[in-house]
Amino acid sequence: MKNNKRVFFLVPYLLWIVLFVILPLLLIGWYSITDTNGHFTLENYQRFFGSGTFLRMSLNSLWYAFLITLFTLVISYPAAYLLTKMKHQQFWLLLIILPTWINLLLKAYAFIGILGTHGMVNQFLQLFGLGPVNMLFTNFAFILVAVYIEIPFMILPIYNAIADINPAVIQASEDLGASKWQTFRYVLWPLSWPGVESGIQAIFIPSLSLFMLTRLIGGNRVITLGTAIEEYFMTTMNWNMGATIGVILIVMMIVVMLITGQRKKGRTRK
Amino acid sequence: MKKLLWGISAILLVCLGLWGLSNKLLQSSAASGNHKLIIYNWGDYIDPDLISKFEKQTGYRVTYQTFDSNEAMYTKIKQGGTAYDLAVPSEYMVTKLRKAGLLEKLDLSKIPNRKYLGKNFIHQSFDPQNEYSLPYFWGTLGIIYNDKFVKAGSITSWNDLWNKKYRHNILLVDSARDIMGLSLASLGYSMNTTNTIELHLAKTKLDNLGSNVKAIIADELKMYMIQNEAAIGVTWSGEASEMLAANKHLHYVVPKPYSNLWFDNFVVPKTAKNPQAAYAFINFMLDPKNAAQNAEYVGYATPVEAALKYLPKSVRDDKQFYPDRKLVKRLEVFKDLSKSKVQEYNDLFLEFKMYVH
């Protein structure tokens, strides 16, 4: 009886997993190895790897995702560290989380207003006699907005990881004569790595397939795999090719997970 | 395990019950449906006063539903959930709907007012005998420019877009057929070409436009042009008329040598429960006075030639939206191409977007 109850509680979760995770994945896989008439073919993959356009697009996606993650990390790590040293930490955390309550689309539109030719930034520059700078629809604007949106998702896990570190460990390191850099390199960084890792995964993976920002802020001058998927599904309705790109994106994500996960394993073995 | 089975059967039972209920509801609405007309049209694409006038004249009760893309409309009609009596797709979608067997043949004898339609706007390639569709509004693809940045009258042809002066200053609408089409037209090729070499030449020419392109976007284009963000935009005349109304510095041209002519059309889907009402409505909307009133409200160009005399002179003589007949004759209507050709257009366009720098 007791066992039966447990199974019963599992049902909603299992249904969810099967309907919304496993089934769609199988469907994507199936679509990617068939043609528009439903016959088996590997042509889609052949097309992907045989075309410079798609390979360049993949490199583009990886490169932008890497830059976005890097900048977010560089900004978030010191911020998270300082946060653990502050009074009223809950208040500051709240301020960092606050922007995530606002709809993404709304934030993107706000940036359009800020970065535009007659936007706030250019009005400010004009006070110093600097002419209007073209900022909207540039790579710079795209990365800036993406980093802005992702920062809370990096700060939170790192903050949690650092807050969990016993301060005595840091003090011990200092007492034993380690320089500030050594303390950071050999004590703080490895101990906070789990937070950094989940931050990287939470940002790198979605950044691979950003497509709304590439259009609204990048003006379709930044093309990622996400743009291609949207086009194949919505415009040309070639779901098979779209699914193929989806499979490749999934593989890329798994590789990223493996790379970031590896370090942790290696360390625990030591 | 037993409970699991119970749970599943309970869910199934509820589904069954709901299905039965919805069926019953549909039936009852069909029974009272003889006085009901369900119209499926683009958002903000009709003068609401005309609907109430139609209801008063004929006693039909109109339900007006809207869509925002041809594809969305196609899916809804195909699903058949709502019994739309009248829809307004663009020309290539008329072909697609017809090929999918989703359209009812029009009983033209019920629509005598079709005689008011201009000759240039009927018997088009997508429906040569107007068996399935009659035009509602028409328009062109063209260039909108801001005379703050571009000398008025200096843009007359597609090739002017390639001028080095406009570096980083052109907004394009994100549509493969239209942008590939403008490049094809600038080379003198048909905008419906299926010739792979011509398509590649057009794409190579587009690549050279890359440095002039500021962005390739959709609806936002309207906002940017109104806010003087860019000097030049490539868009459709209907969108342009809204922009012109909001910013006096904007001008619209139909570029040389030729451009695209598009139509939105009345059709009666197979789902229709009340085609008589649909005919009455089409006939009502083609009445010259009503057509004029609608055209003035919506701002698009009406194909009802007899309606022109009821329009204010400033509208009627506006060459931007009512180009002279000679030009209209040269405009090309998009044909519904095969799936693989549409893919080719889109792939080349995607490649162009990759290398815009």
Automatic annotation (TrEMBL), chain B:
- Record keywords: Repeat included? no
One GO MF annotation is: polyamine binding
* Residues annotated to bind spermidine: Y92
SUPFAM superfamilies listed in its UniProt record:
Periplasmic binding protein-like II (SSF53850)
- GO CC term, one of those recorded: periplasmic space
Q: A single GO BP annotation from the record? A: polyamine transport
Keywords recorded for this protein, A-Z: Periplasm, Signal, Transport
**Cellular localisation:** Periplasm
The protein's superkingdom reads Bacteria
Whether Ribonucleoprotein counts among this entry's keywords is no
Please state what the protein is called. Answer: Spermidine/putrescine ABC transporter substrate-binding protein
Task: Write the gene name.
Answer: potD_2
